[in-house]
Amino acid sequence: MKEIWTTLASIMGVWAFFQSLMHNIFPAEIRLIFQKTFNQFINYFSVYCYYEITEIDGVNTNELYDAVQLYLSTSASIAGNRLSLTRLLNSSALTFSLSNHDRVVDNYKNVPVVWEHFVMQRQSQTISWRPLPEDKRVFTLRVKKKDKSIILDSYLDFIMEKANELKRKNQDRLIYTNSGGGVMDPRGMIPWESVPFKHPSTFDTLAMDPGKKAEILDDLLGFAKGESFYQRTGRAWKRGYLLYGPPGTGKSSMIAAMANFLGYDIYDLELTGVNNNSELRKLFMKTSSKSIIVIEDIDCSINLTNRNDKKNDHVNAIPGIPNEGIEDMGNKITLSGLLNFSDGLWSCCGSERIFVFTTNHVEKIDPALLRSGRMDMHIHMSYCSFSALKILLKNYLGFDDEGSLKSETLKELEELIGKANITPADVSEILIKNTRDDEKAVKELIRELKIRGEMIKCSKKDDVNVEYVEKDNEEKYVDGDAHEDDLGNK
């Protein structure tokens, strides 16, 4: 052992003497050439190659550095020895990151890669328009040369994708509104204002038929994972949904469930606050990717009624303005502008956006707005069904499908719910009032369903009687005309 240390010390001494000799005899240019040649010689026989990813690339922030830091946080929390804890803005979770000179081993497609983090003191700064941090932070990626193509072709893209998923998962949802009183920035007015979105609605708690719910979930998943499909087919990566049905059937809860399921932000667009088509385009350009753009009660927001509905022409017509134009309380958005907003050239500015329109009267909307490409999937939010009722009973009273209620009670509820046009919102209100007494809640619900069923039954009878009377009067009127004609002829 003593001989080994003696030999090693001799080698180091010879190397130090050689470096001193080189420094004193050869000029700097020759030394630089020698150093470069020596490094190339060493790298030629090395089985590894190295890549550096710096935090600041020149004067710009390197997005890849942030992505690597977030991606490695999942591995570093388990494998790292010395970790740094951070919490991102608008984030609900802590993230781990590697400290100085700490390393972690990752595995991608059975290819081992080694990440190491270095924090170095930055040299004296040159004059720049942006002050740089004192420390220079660098991730070093070490991989075998034979695996170089795999890493460069797909591994870094994989890291960016995973980092974006983690960011959306950890970041709080935001809901935006175009209030018209935005905050000033150096480039002008910011048209959107945001607050944290904390709506608890999910597809598990949504009162809807399970089959229809599964169909919507499959469609959303297909959209979220369909980037390659949209690129291959030459279509903009967007999708439109129309939610229609009576008030209180869960249209707003559906939007919240979609946002929570996909991890998207919501832009609640108030059309009455938009002055013209140009402003509408600017609002759209300020929306981010991976977002849901919502226009609620589109039939009430502005005058976009069905142009083919001749019955409403006298109501919708405005003197001097075509029927497809809108000028209501100073609002000058046209139907053409809204169509271009949802399916025109401007709709391609960005990616992974969902448009959701809601209405209580789908028959009032112009067919041009309802076609595929603008509203791809039409979802009817109907009155409460028996399957939706069971979900509400589970949400509010904790009843499950394994016998929390008697079979006779369930059978009665199933029979009554089909005859009473009651919305999930009305059922929820009855259950909320009686959450402390489950038995009373069920009795109140049964009583309300019976009352509504009787009202519908009576209204149907009245409609039949009115129809019979009108038909009878019409026959008498026709007979009377015929009798008078006969007398006149005589």
TrEMBL record:
It comes from the Eukaryota. Residues 237-385 form the AAA+ ATPase domain. GO terms for biological process: response to stress. GO terms for molecular function: ATP binding; ATP hydrolysis activity. Keywords: Hydrolase, Magnesium. It catalyses: ATP + H2O = ADP + phosphate + H(+). The keyword Chaperone does not apply. Its cofactor is Mg(2+). The keyword Nucleotidyltransferase does not apply. SUPFAM superfamilies: P-loop containing nucleoside triphosphate hydrolases. Pfam families: AAA, AAA_assoc, AAA_lid_At3g28540. Belongs to the AAA ATPase family. BCS1 subfamily. This is AAA+ ATPase domain-containing protein.
